[in-house]
Amino acid sequence: MWQLLMIVQGAPAAAPAASETSTSLLDLPALVRRVVDWAVGFAPNLIGAALTLVIGVWVIKLVTRGLRTLMSRGKVDESLTHFLCGLAYYGLLALVLIAVAGKLGVETTSFVALLGAVGLAVGFALQGSLGNLAAGVMILFFRPFRVGDAIEAGGQAGVVQEIGVFATILATVDNRKVIVPNSAITGGSIVNATAHPTRRVDLSFPIAADEDIHKAKAVVLAAATSEAKVLKDPPAEVVAVALPDGLNIKLMAWVATPDVLAMQARLFERVKDAFAEQGVRGPIAVREIRMVGQAGK
After folding, report:
1. Which one of 33, 160, 172, 224 is at 20 to 30 Å from 18 when CA atoms are compared?
2. Integer Cα distance of 50 and 181 in angstroms
3. Residues 88 and 157 placed together within one structural domain of the fold
């Protein structure tokens, strides 16, 4: 009654007692109702997010499995297959996680923009590595050489030991390990010495200018064809080329690619021995001496 009179008279009402405030704050049934109402309202979003995550991961695995199968049927290099499948998996997983965040009510627009900005910054910082990565993908996809091939590329020569997505490892003839960035390889010419099963061995043998050309050619051809590792098809050829102080007999013989180095040394020795047996002389060195007298004598 006193409070009513005070309100009518325009006086402010008295503050509620401390016991009443604590009672309202500890109103557990009301708090539980609020939590239940929030959970009921948020449940569709939570269920949708869970379904999106489960179905998304299932679809990602299905896509990567199909991609791996297609690459296997196309005989794509295993390293490239593993790299591309991993790249596709994590890229699709990032999209699924963004969709899940959207289902949970998270604002994804700013997140996508931030992710794009971070990706752009990382791309600028790693542009050299990304160039090697792109070159490695090209090498593994187009396969200009394989492990075990002898190549010249990027200013280096050696046998390919490993083809990575960033660099290619070569072993030189003196067994040194050379790591060549893939961008240096694809940025220039690539010479693959073992790409074909056969190669031609070219050797030159200078002879004296007054020697019988036909005899010298016959000696060289006989020495070459007597070697079992010289192929009959295509046949070996011998030609004569003029030199300033003599003649040059050039041998062109086909051998199996693994035998190139051994046959170069073997044929050189055989022809030199045959020249000595048949009396074919080498070029005769000529020196011209001019005597210039002094003026007035």
Report:
1. 33
2. 44
3. no
